[in-house]
Design brief:
The N and C termini lie far apart (44 Å). The protein has 257 residues and is mainly α. 73% of the residues lie in helices and 0% in strands. It has ten helices and no strands. InterPro entries: ABC2_TM, ABC2_TM_bact-type, ABC_2_transport, Nod_factor_ABC_transporter. This is Transport permease protein. It comes from Streptomyces asiaticus subsp. ignotus. It is a multi-pass membrane protein.
Length: 257
């Protein structure tokens, strides 16, 4: 017999890891059901890879195979499109429509929501990488290097872009986020070493561009996968700094409504 006012089963929040897993599963399903997001995260990187690998449009500055140069950059583009652009836009409109306001009154903490969204991004990226790798291999790509270095670059790149995307979505209006995220995507596509070698830019501009997260990610992946280089510590360091700054700022300034 229970005392007055005692409820069985005892009400209360689920353990935090379980809440994050449940939210991550929900975020993944929502992401995969969104046709516009799939266009951005899957179709565009695939088209860029196929088009620029088979048609002589852009001088990549590489002496080797075009696909060997492009494949690492397109993998970086996939991370950018999912972790930054897609997540920023989706989260911005969730905030506008009051979804985040309702989550704010749940036991899930702010950082837990960010962790769940980042987990959903990682799941999507795994599918992207499998698809893009298959396409690149069919086009004649011959990757080299250490898989651990590639994994570290992709994880830190995801953390960096996820933090920046959440920061934008949590501080700007949804329409502003939509415009800004797409503009940044296009600018980084051209100036981030994805399809155009940074060697094509003047020295001072190139030095500044090399500090961008997309340049560090694409350059690090290219050094490992194309040239067979060892652990790209400089690029990993740049991505780690962006990840800490982006996620820290998002946790500090993110507004739920």
């Amino acid at each position: 017999m229970t005392a007055t006012g005692t409820f069985l089963p005892k009400p209360g929040a689920a353990p935090l890891p379980r809440m994050i897993r449940a939210q991550a599963a929900l975020e993944t399903r929502m992401l995969l059901r969104n046709g516009e997001q799939l266009l951005l995260t899957v179709v565009i990187p695939s088209l860029v890879l196929v088009l620029f690998s088979t048609v002589d449009i852009v001088d990549t500055g590489s002496d080797g195979s075009t696909v060997d140069f492009l494949a690492p950059g397109v993998l970086a583009l996939a991370v950018l499109s999912t972790a930054f652009t897609g997540q920023a836009i989706a989260t911005g409109f969730e905030r506008r429509y009051g979804v985040l306001k309702r989550l704010a009154v749940s036991p899930l903490p702010r950082w837990g929501l960010m962790a769940a969204k980042t987990c959903a991004v990682l799941v999507t990226e795994v599918m992207q990488i499998v698809l893009l790798t298959a396409i690149a291999l069919a086009l004649g790509w011959k990757p080299h290097g250490d898989p651990l270095s590639v994994a570290l670059l992709l994880i830190l790149g995801t953390a960096a872009f996820s933090g920046l995307g959440l920061l934008m979505a949590g501080t700007l209006k949804a329409e502003a986020t939509l415009a800004a995220a797409n503009l940044v995507f296009l600018l980084l596509l051209v100036s981030g070493g994805v399809i155009v070698s940074l060697d094509k830019f003047p020295g001072g501009v190139r030095s500044a561009l090399e500090l961008l997260p997309i340049s560090a990610l694409s350059g690090g992946l290219r050094d490992v996968l194309q040239d067979g280089a060892g652990m790209p510590w400089r690029d990993l360091g740049i991505l780690a700094v962006w990840a800490v700054l982006g996620l820290g700022a998002a946790a500090r300034f993110f507004r739920w409504e």
